[in-house]
Amino acid sequence: MVEKFRKGLLYVEWTLAGVFLSIMTLSVFLEVLARYVLHVSLSWPEEVARFSFIWCSLVGASIAMERRKLHDIDLVFEHLPKMMKPFVALLVDFLVLGILSVLLLYGAKLTALVHLQISPAMEIRMSYVYSAIPFASALMLISQAFNTVETFFGLPFFRSGMKTT
């Protein structure tokens, strides 16, 4: 059940990232075509490309979080005793959960703060663009929660079958 949910979430993330990447590519192509072939300058494709890039990047970060492909700094981690590594990994997972929670909270506040601001070229509310922050943070928070549970159940006393009571 959990694995099916995670695969479904990953499918949605990949689809969104693909859509925003396609929109970004097409809008840049349209701008180049209009400027150099038709000798017309359009103001909105550049904004569409920028906003699509923001959404694509943040959704891509959530894909990387789900697949555990974000960068690790393991200089200190590799020198820890083997028995401590799983516990330090769990601590790091909890810290990441905390940071993502803060990002979600303040991303939502920032989105609400800029709701009345209008983009210059397309004249849409900037909250539509800024909502990428809490949206991607929520996706990453879900993925990190699953990753943290996996790390927790990978601790030595769960792997060896020892009882904790």
Describe the structure concisely for a colleague.
The chain has 165 residues and is an all-alpha fold.
Q: Main sheet, how many strands, which sense, barrel?
A: none
Distance between the termini: 28 Å
Helix content: over 70%
Number of domains: 1
**What gross morphology would you assign?**
elongated
- Overall radius of gyration: 21 Å
Number of helical stretches of at least 4 residues: 6
Q: What is the count of β-strands?
A: 0
Strand content: under 5%
Task: Describe, in plain words, how this protein is organized in 3D.
This protein has one domain. It contains 6 helices and no strands. The radius of gyration is 21 Å and the shape is elongated.
Name the descriptors.
0% strand, 72% helix, mainly alpha, 165 residues
Task: Show the helix and strand layout.
Elements: H1 2-36, H2 44-66, H3 85-113, H4 126-130, H5 132-153, H6 156-159
Helix pairs in contact: 1-2, 2-5, 3-5
